């Protein structure tokens, strides 16, 4: 399991490194394109791209830090660095969305002074779309295994959709002369950024508040554990995440008297751990086995 995690971390770092190079090149192209064409939509997409570049660098740094081994001071290791990286990414996205909205509204109010060169705007947007699609395909396989990688993937996905919006705006301007399409496209880009930022920040909050993972049913876990031979009751159940894919579980297990007296506690612990790993994808589980008389006088027992 440790080897697989290390291999996954190395693969994620390689994917992020390539994506960083792709996004950095497109960012430079879009900034130059926005300056040459006068397009706010391109500038908005470049701003979004800049936040994504910063986010990807943060994500890469987080994967390196998260791979460090556990210590006596960091007993779970540094896996939660990925969560803090995702938090910073989400905050950057919020800032970019607000800035784009302010700029777009300003252009809509002052419609007469904004001339946009549609043809070079279209060319630059097409280049951005191709590059974003390449980065998107590169990051997609890792998006489901890490909150940090999911944040990076969502950022590049937003850039891809942003490039589409710029292409549409350039086409409208080219064929109709409707310059307001540029500002409208900027608002569309901001509208795509905001929900992604919300989702990412929501997931980060769930981890940092040590909420039960969204895909975990505590009642079902309790039922599984109670079906294990030798188990009488289950209480003081806790389930949380260190980061995406790293679930942690603990519980107090009241057992039948002969489990402890006959020395079957080790076998029971193995069965409980295998149950959590097999049915709930929890590799780190802790159980306190106790006789009924101990559970009865525990202070502040809870479910």
Automatic annotation (TrEMBL):
Sorted UniProt keywords: Ion transport, Membrane, Transmembrane, Transmembrane helix, Transport
Q: Which residues form the Cation efflux protein cytoplasmic domain?
A: 213-291
Q: Which residues form a coiled coil?
A: none
Q: Where is the Cation efflux protein transmembrane domain?
A: 18-208
Does the record carry ATP-binding as a key word? no
Q: How does it sit in the membrane?
A: Multi-pass membrane protein
Give the main localization category. membrane
The portions of this protein that span the membrane are 16-37, 49-71, 83-106, 118-139, 151-177, 183-201
Q: Where in the cell is it found?
A: Membrane
Q: Which InterPro entries match?
A: Cation_efflux, Cation_efflux_CTD, Cation_efflux_CTD_sf, Cation_efflux_TM, Cation_efflux_TMD_sf, CDF/SLC30A
Q: Which family does it belong to?
A: Belongs to the cation diffusion facilitator (CDF) transporter (TC 2.A.4) family. SLC30A subfamily.
Q: What is this protein called?
A: Cation transporter
